[in-house]
Design goal:
By secondary structure, this protein is an all-alpha fold. It has twelve helices and two strands, in the order αααααβααβααααα. It has a two-stranded parallel sheet. The longest helix has 19 residues, at 158-176. It is flat.
Length: 205
């Protein structure tokens, strides 16, 4: 084997288990983004053989914003977990605080919800978590879906904009009803079966 070939072999072969582990740790976040990885492989910025070693099983995690009706139960569970070590910890949320939690989009998914509540437990000074204890969500309760949302809708084809607007109205009604579909249907002045059908069509859970 020539010196040049030997050098290439040393660079591509894993030198130890620790080295393998270190490389996987650095790239495990990428393995959840197959489109970005495919581009990186095509541009020569990521090793194709390493991609196939990492990509053994792909688990699709649904976004929290697609399951808003689960947020109240999740929030209460997380609050109990983080408040167990503090006798003076808040026991629940004000309606305004829960509304802000329901309206937030959660790009960080469940981990972001947990971080928000953990911080709120530290900040809270009363028996309930208030909106003031959730400073990162102050804008969420002030009316997500206002003018910026309308401006976005105006850039869409009419049919797509109408679907997005309907999705927004149903989501808002569910938030106002605390996840109660019967009450949401009443707010929207439609039959409950109608609401279920529209939610299924628009993939609102």
């Amino acid at each position: 084997m020539s010196p040049a070939t030997a050098g290439r072999a040393r660079r591509t072969a894993p030198s130890s288990k620790w080295a393998d582990s270190k490389r996987c740790d650095r790239t495990s976040g990428w393995s959840q983004r197959p489109t970005g990885l495919a581009r990186a492989i095509g541009e020569g910025r990521f090793r194709e053989d390493l991609f196939y070693r990492l990509n053994v099983a792909r688990i699709e995690v649904p976004s929290l914003r697609a399951h808003r009706s689960d947020i109240p139960d999740l929030a209460e569970h997380i609050l109990r977990q983080h408040g167990v070590s503090r006798p003076d910890a808040p026991s629940s949320f004000t309606d305004e605080a829960m509304r802000a939690l329901l309206l937030h989009d959660y790009p960080g998914n469940v981990r972001e919800l947990e971080n928000l509540i953990e911080r709120a437990v530290v900040l809270a000074r009363g028996p309930l978590i208030t909106l003031e204890d959730l400073p990162a969500l102050a804008g969420s309760a002030a009316g997500a879906g206002g003018e910026p949302r309308l401006a976005e809708l105006l850039t869409m084809p009419m049919e797509q904009a109408m679907r997005e607007l309907e999705r927004l109205l149903i989501t808002r009604a569910l938030v106002m009803a605390g996840g109660n579909k019967t009450e949401a249907a009443r707010l929207l002045q439609m039959r409950r079966q109608q609401l279920y059908a529209r939610m299924a069509e628009l993939r609102i859970e």
